[in-house]
């Protein structure tokens, strides 16, 4: 969603929490922590990698 806003400077975006190398158990534990405190779970408040976001990619995925 960041990529579709004209007010966001995508070049300033930073990677957040990446779960692809985590076990299912680690992800489950992290999910419970995120329900209580999302910033504690993600360290910077970002889940995933917004640096690769583009308006075209977003509209292709969600249209």
Describe this structure in words.
With 63 residues, the protein is an all-alpha fold. The chain has one domain (2-62). Helix content is 41%, strand content 0%. It has three helices and no strands. It has helices at 24-36, 38-42, 55-62. The longest helix has 13 residues, at 24-36.
Distance between the termini: 13 Å
Tally of helical segments: 3
DSSP strand content? under 5%
Query: What's the domain count?
Result: 1
Helix and strand element order: HHH
**Major sheet, described briefly?**
none
The residue-averaged pLDDT reads 77
Oligomer: single chain
Poorly predicted residue ranges? none
Shape: globular
**DSSP strand count:** 0
Radius of gyration: 14 Å
Helix content: 40-55%
* Alpha-beta classification: mainly alpha
What would the keywords be for this entry?
63 residues; 41% helix; globular
Question: What is the structure about, briefly put?
Answer:
The chain is built from three helices and no strands. By secondary structure, it is mainly alpha-helical.
